[in-house]
């Protein structure tokens, strides 16, 4: 039934059909009253008049949802806001021109191939969270507030990217989001719109630049690794210097250390140790080496020494 489907707006400039069940009830009531008069009077004038009255009266009731406000014009002049719930208008005199949604609305916007201040082309995707706080301004001050907010967000994003370097864009997302929110809010406040937050979803840079940045990061890590390795070598050398001083003043400690090293090396089965001859002579390790060799030969030959130990 076309008369009971009213065209409304969802805030995005798109006409949305709205079914009014109160208007349907009025029309059905008028039709039932006309049918009753027709049965009692046998005249078609009364049913036709009741039907026409029902068609007129059904234009009066309107229903707004809890989150909506209706903008009513009377002969082209703004007379007020209506809703939420059931309200009435004067048929053919009052007109509901817009249904303003006051819930938080999300709008995605992007800046494609926008140059940063250091002339790097980037693609940035973001999401805007906003809501209408002044319905009268949103209806009267701008033709399509939703589209206006979208364009304002896109131009603000391009403006910020144009005066920001790529490094700051990648590192300082929170600062850029805050600045972007303030800029969009400043532009949209005269339209009765307030911005809750702005979230940057993705920043896409050219593939060649990504490879260069990856190589740079790898080189930085290798440099840091070499620096750490050099510092470790310096600490080891310093420790060896301190140990050499201690062993120089205490030869017994040096011999004990040599014996411990020999034991640790030979206690593993099949171990082989190469010791400089100078160390054997300076630390008196000949006897220890001979004893160790005899022990290994004894174990290998079933308690029968393969060769006699060398007499020092």
Please give a structural write-up.
Helix content is 52%, strand content 24%. It has 312 residues and is of the alpha+beta class. Helix 4 packs across helix 6 (173-188) and helix 7 (207-249) packs across helix 8 (251-266).
Task: Give the CATH superfamily of the largest domain.
Answer: Band 7 domain
- The quaternary organization reads as single chain
CATH topology of the largest domain: Tetrahydropterin Synthase, Chain A
If you average the pLDDT, what whole number results? 79
Rg is: 45 Å
Question: How would you spell out the order of helices and strands?
Answer: EEHHEEEEEEEHHHHEHHHH
Rough outline:
elongated
Number of DSSP helical runs = 10
Low-confidence stretches: 1-15, 303-312
How many distinct folded domains? 3
Alpha carbon gap, first and last residue: 121 Å
Helix content: 40-55%
Task: Tell how many strands the DSSP assignment holds.
Answer: 10
CATH architecture of the largest domain: 2-Layer Sandwich
Strand % is 15-25%
What is the level 1 CATH name of the largest domain?
Answer: Alpha Beta
Main sheet summary: 3 strands, antiparallel
């Amino acid at each position: 039934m076309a008369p009971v489907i009213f065209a409304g707006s969802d805030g995005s400039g798109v006409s949305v059909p709205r079914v009014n069940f109160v208007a349907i009830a009025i029309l059905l009531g008028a039709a039932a009253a006309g049918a009753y008069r027709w049965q009692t009077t046998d005249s078609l004038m009364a049913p036709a008049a009741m039907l026409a009255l029902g068609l007129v009266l059904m234009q009066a009731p309107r229903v707004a949802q809890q989150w909506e406000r209706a903008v009513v014009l009377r002969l082209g002049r703004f007379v007020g806001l209506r809703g939420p719930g059931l309200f009435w208008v004067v048929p053919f005199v009052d007109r509901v021109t817009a249904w303003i949604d006051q819930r938080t609305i999300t709008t995605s916007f992007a800046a494609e191939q926008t140059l940063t201040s250091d002339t790097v082309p980037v693609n940035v995707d973001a999401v805007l969270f906003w809501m209408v706080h002044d319905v009268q301004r949103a209806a009267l001050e701008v033709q399509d507030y939703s589209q206006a907010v979208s364009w304002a967000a896109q131009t603000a994003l391009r403006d910020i990217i144009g005066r920001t370097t790529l490094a700051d864009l990648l590192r300082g997302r929170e600062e850029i989001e805050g600045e972007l929110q303030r800029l969009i809010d400043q532009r949209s406040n005269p339209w009765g719109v307030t911005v809750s937050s702005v979230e940057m979803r993705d920043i896409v840079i050219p593939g060649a630049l990504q490879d260069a940045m990856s190589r740079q990061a790898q080189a930085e890590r290798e440099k840091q690794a070499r620096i750490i390795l050099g510092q470790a070598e310096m600490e080891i050398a310093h420790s060896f210097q301190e140990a050499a001083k201690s062993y120089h003043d205490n030869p017994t400690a040096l011999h004990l250390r040599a014996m411990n090293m020999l034991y640790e090396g030979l206690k593993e089965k099949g171990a082989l140790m190469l010791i400089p001859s100078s160390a054997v002579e300076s630390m008196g390790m000949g006897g220890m080496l001979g004893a160790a060799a005899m022990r290994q030969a004894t174990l290998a030959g079933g308690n029968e020494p393969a060769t006699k130990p060398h007499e020092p």
